[in-house]
């Protein structure tokens, strides 16, 4: 699970660099006592704090505290909080405002809805 | 060596958070194929890309390629490149312009000169 996540993050970092952004993976993003995203990227004009997941299933959720941390971090760092999900082989990017929240406060994304509520990488970075 | 470096970086991250900055350690900063700093910190107004070292000796150098990477990263990310050295227990912060370069293109800092050519953490973040 952990390796899969790291590999997905590395791929994201590479995608950002290819498009002229400087991007890094955050160390210990799941274990740090400070809020932090998985990936940070900026081209000096736009800065993204990304929480990234990869799944082979048809459903991906993000815990409430993860989202809260992402928002808190972004408010201080002045970055745009973004969720990224790789369903099988394809990446989808989500603004928080486009997502529905479950009763538990989780952000839940179904693969079948992803196309409609996501933006593409090209839209994100342009 | 590696643990010492990571602990120093963690301490820096903590110092930034205490002063209202969002800060993270960069994963694989010594091994990534993309240029990256050790620590990134921003309060939304100032953003620092920090190459950090800790030493118990009286001398610390930074390799030419490390400095070049730090500069390259910062130009894209729009961060200020900073060197941080913890000599024994005390941190010193350096703007690149205040440092002398050896014949090999290294940046060399002697502990006895550190006080004079460094800035304090408070000066850095204010």
Summary tags:
Trna Endonuclease, Chain: A, domain 1; 4 helices; homodimer; 5-stranded mixed sheet; 7 strands; two-stranded antiparallel ribbon
Describe the largest sheet of chain A: 5 strands, mixed
Note the beta-strand portion of chain A. 25-35%
Q: How would you describe the shape of chain A?
A: globular
Based on CA atoms alone, the radius of gyration of chain A comes out at: 13 Å
Q: Structural class, from helix and strand content of chain A?
A: alpha+beta
Q: What average pLDDT do the residues of chain A reach? A: 93
Write down the oligomeric state. Answer: homodimer
Outline:
In chain A, 34% of the residues lie in helices and 31% in strands. Chain A has 126 residues and is α+β, with helices and mostly antiparallel strands. Chain A has a single domain, classed as Trna Endonuclease, Chain: A, domain 1, CATH 3.40.1350.10.
Can you walk through the features of this model?
The structure is a homodimer of 126-residue chains. With 126 residues, the first copy, chain A, is α+β, with helices and mostly antiparallel strands. Helix content of chain A is 34%, strand content 31%. In chain A, the strands form 2 sheets. A 5-stranded mixed β-sheet of chain A has the order 1-2-3-5-6, with helices on both faces. The longest helix of chain A is centred in the N-terminal third of the chain and has 17 residues, at 2-18. The first copy, chain A, is globular. The mean pLDDT of chain A is 93. Chains A and B meet through helix 1, strand 1 and helix 2 of A and helix 1, strand 1 and helix 2 of B.
